[in-house]
Amino acid sequence: MITININDTVKNIVEEHPAFKKVMNEIGLKKVMNKNMLNTVGRFTPLKHGIKIKRIPLETLQEVANKYGFLVVEPKND
């Protein structure tokens, strides 16, 4: 299972793990599919903030991420 830090920016996550775009698209963060949005807003937006803005429960993100082989975590020291 690949670990994703929820405090990382959307752009960093996608650059390191391109398959994670499927997870974000499925939960409703569809704008990450647009390269321009990813390169502008995604550079500054942590995943945690993105799901909060869209009112996506953390549990939903974790369930979908697990389905694709990802584990979403929030390190205590971040």
Write the layout of secondary structure elements.
Layout: E1 2-5, H1 10-16, H2 20-27, H3 35-44, H4 47-53, H5 58-67, E2 70-73
Parallel strand pairs: 1-2
Helix pairs in contact: 2-5
Order of SSEs: EHHHHHE
Strand content is 5-15%
CATH superfamily: SP0561-like
Q: Judging by the overall fold, what is the CATH architecture?
A: Orthogonal Bundle
* Helix count, DSSP H or I runs of 4 or more residues: 5
Average pLDDT: 92
Instruction: Using the coordinates above, name the CATH class.
Output: Mainly Alpha
Describe the structure in brief.
The protein has five helices and two strands.
Explain what you see:
With 78 residues, the chain is mainly α. It has a single domain, classed as Orthogonal Bundle (SP0561-like), CATH 1.10.3910. It has helices spanning 10-16, 20-27, 35-44, 47-53, 58-67; strands spanning 2-5, 70-73. It has a two-stranded parallel ribbon. Helix 2 crosses helix 5. The relative contact order is 0.28.
